[in-house]
């Protein structure tokens, strides 16, 4: 799925985020999905009948298995710099470009203000 997304959008535009909900109850997941800013319920991968997370896949038990993603991307043909980006570098770049000091923003970001 990650490699296919990289094919569609370019590997520089995707990354593993910070929303791993490992061992969290459904109430935390609901707060993350809906928050206080909306009145509509977002069931994410679930539904009104089954609102929680789906069962985890057997090959990804928890955050200790994230290294397997990198190996899968390598086998799918991504280069090491592309893998490094997907595994955290792209997220760090996005964060720095989006939330950094005003003078570090791109001209497009400054024009949007």
Automatic annotation (TrEMBL):
InterPro entries: Metal_Hydrolase, Pept_M19. This is Membrane dipeptidase (Peptidase family M19). Pfam families: Peptidase_M19. GO terms for biological process: proteolysis. The lineage of its organism: Bacteria, Pseudomonadati, Pseudomonadota, Alphaproteobacteria, Rhodobacterales. GO terms for molecular function: metallodipeptidase activity. It comes from the Bacteria. Gene3D superfamilies: Metal-dependent hydrolases.
């Amino acid at each position: 799925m990650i490699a296919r997304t990289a094919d569609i959008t370019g590997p520089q535009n995707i990354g593993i985020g910070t929303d791993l909900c490992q061992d969290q109850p459904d109430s935390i997941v609901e707060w993350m999905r809906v928050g206080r800013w909306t009145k509509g319920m977002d069931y994410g991968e679930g539904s009104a009948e089954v609102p929680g997370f789906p069962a985890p896949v057997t090959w990804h038990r928890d955050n200790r298995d994230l290294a397997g993603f990198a190996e899968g991307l390598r086998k799918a043909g991504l280069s090491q710099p592309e893998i490094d980006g997907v595994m955290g570098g792209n997220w760090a770049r996005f964060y720095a470009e989006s939330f950094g000091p005003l003078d570090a923003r791109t001209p497009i970001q400054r024009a949007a203000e």
